TrEMBL record:
Keyword list, A-Z: Ion transport, Transport
Keyword set includes Transcription regulation: no
Organism: Nitrincola tapanii
InterPro entries linked to this entry: V_ATPase_D
Protein name: V-type ATP synthase subunit D
Source species, domain of life: Bacteria
Family recorded in the similarity comment: Belongs to the V-ATPase D subunit family.
Any GO MF annotation of the entry: proton-transporting ATPase activity, rotational mechanism
Length: 200
């Protein structure tokens, strides 16, 4: 660590530092609050999607108790035809956004299949939609948490480390300059007294 020069130029430099740091603090605090609000709403969205998925799974179990006897693979009944994502910028953090989702039901023989496959296919489409939305919401939440952590660290760096350190340096320089000024006055008085004695 470099030694602090106890002079007026360092005092001015430290004063400018404090002013610059204090300009960053409100902007970082505002960013942190915006990220916190976005995280809260995204968490609510995630809980709603999870509840919707659980309700749909319960509905499938209740309406289609014969599903375990199904000979085919349930995953073959529906597939994602197209998925389009975009991004939204929230205070410098790029968050994924579901633009469009197209799910298709591959053709199957109505005569050779169980009558309840139509209903199952519809519910599976809804399940795929909810799971896709949930994955994107979880990704948004991860990015928001990472952004919030970085912003909080920066805010703490300015607010709890850099500003107090510069203010401490300013106090130290003020004390050193005041001491130097007093010492100068004392030396001047001593020198004046010596001159008076010498001339007498």
């Amino acid at each position: 660590m470099t030694r602090l020069a106890l002079n007026k130029s360092t005092l001015n430099k430290e004063g400018r530092k404090v002013k610059a740091y204090q300009k960053f603090v409100p902007a970082l605090d505002l960013k942190r609050k915006q990220l916190l609000a976005a995280r809260v709403s995204t968490e609510k969205e995630k809980h709603a999607q999870e509840a919707g998925l659980q309700a749909l799974q319960a509905l499938v179990k209740a309406q289609l108790p014969m599903l375990p006897q199904f000979q085919g693979r349930v995953t073959d009944l529906v597939r994602i035809k197209s998925l389009q994502l975009s991004e939204t910028n929230l205070v410098g953090i790029r968050l994924p956004l579901l633009q469009s989702l197209e799910i298709e039901i591959p053709p199957y023989s109505c005569l050779a299949s169980a009558h309840w496959l139509d209903r199952l296919s519809e519910q599976l489409c809804e399940m795929v939609r909810l799971k896709t939305q949930l994955q994107i919401t979880e990704q948004r939440l991860r990015l928001l948490n990472r952004g919030l952590q970085k912003t909080t660290q920066r805010l703490n760096l300015f607010d709890k480390v850099l500003i107090p350190q510069s203010q401490k340096n300013i106090r130290k320089i003020h004390i050193a300059l005041a001491d130097a000024e007093r010492a100068g006055v004392v030396r001047a008085k001593i020198a004046k007294n010596k001159r008076l004695k010498a001339s007498a």
